[in-house]
Amino acid sequence: MKLEASSRTTGRSAALRQEGRLPAVVYNKGLNLSVAVELKAFDRVFREQGTSSLIDLEVDGENHQVLVREVQMDKRRRVPLHVDFYAITAGQKLEVAVPVLFEGTAKGQEAGGQLDVQRREVTIYVLPSQIPHDVTVDISALEIGDAIHIGDVRAFLPATAEIVDDEALTLITVLAPRLEVEEEEVEEEEGAEPEVIGRGAEDEEAEDVEE
User: Taking the chain, what is the end-to-end CA distance rounded to the nearest angstrom?
Assistant: First the structure.
């Protein structure tokens, strides 16, 4: 997807925002450009591409393939204040976080279980031309107690991609119904030895005998 930018002088960030433009930088190991993009255009591209898809950023007629590395947001108004674009180098692998999407309804949910989503992305090391926009995982076969781990998404990634995250980490699991969990806890409490607080009757009787 294409996005146009223009060079800017530093120190005019507030003025740019008032004009509906967004201050940004384009960088890599040997590059550092201060630019500005049209806010509405960036918002449209970012909503569609996210942080894991390449963007063709044209700066004063020169094209750079970039990834969105960081977006500084106004916490109150929830609008972008500044963007960092990372300019990729063709043929050189880079680290990128790819969103994981979950598809279907787990069998465990139909049995009353609850989905517990622990992570929604996987970090990989991959060639720029092979970065997947996202990874879609079918969860319909999951029973209560089943889980999908990061290592399980390997089959959905490009063959040359390397997983950076710990492959044992859980992405999603199906928990037992809360009612069952509470009943099990009650049963365990009923079968457990009662806690004795203070002096027991037997202790007092023993003391009476000693006296």
Answer: 92
Q: Minimal CA–CA distance to 19: which of 39, 44, 35?
A: 39
Structure tokens at 39: 């806010």
Tens digits of residue pLDDT in 136-178: 999 999 999 999 999 999 999 999 999 999 999 999 999 998 7
* Sign of the C-alpha dihedral computed for residues 62, 63, 68 and 69 taken in this order: negative
Residue-wise pLDDT tens digits, 81-135:
999 999 998 888 999 999 999 999 999 999 999 999 999 999 999 999 899 999 9
- CATH numbers and ranges of domains, the chain: 2-89 (2.40.240.10), 95-191 (2.170.120.20)
Task: Specify the pLDDT at position 2.
Answer: 92
Judge contact between 95 and 164, C-beta under 8 A. Answer: yes
